[in-house]
Amino acid sequence: MLEGCTPFPAEFAKRYVSAGIWRRETIPQAIARAALERPDSVTIVDSNRALAYSRLHAEAGSLAALLSRNGIASNDRVIIQLPNCVEFATLTLACLEVGAIPVMALPAFRKAELEYLVALSDAKAIAISPEHRGFDHAALAREIKSRLPTLESIFSTAPADGCISIRERHDSSHTFGSSTGDPLDVALFLLSGGTTGMPKLIPRTHADYLYNARESAAATGLTSESRILIALPAEHNFPLACPGLLGALLVGARVVFSQSAKAADLAHTIEREQITHLPCVPTLAIGLLDLPQSSRAQLRSLRVITIGGQRLQEPTAHALKHAFAHLVVQQVLGMAEGLLCYTRLDECEEVAFTTQGSPLSPSDEIRIVDSDGVDAAPGALGELLCRGPYTIRGYFRAPDRNREAFTADGFYRTGDLVRLGPSGNLVVEGRIKDLINRGGEKISAEEIEAHLIAHPAVSAAAVIAMPDPLLGEKTCVYLALRDRESLTLPAVRAFLEARGVAQFKWPERVEIVAELPLTNVGKIRKAELRRDIAVKLAAEAALSASGTVAQ
Question: SS3 of 12, please?
Answer without folding.
Answer: helix
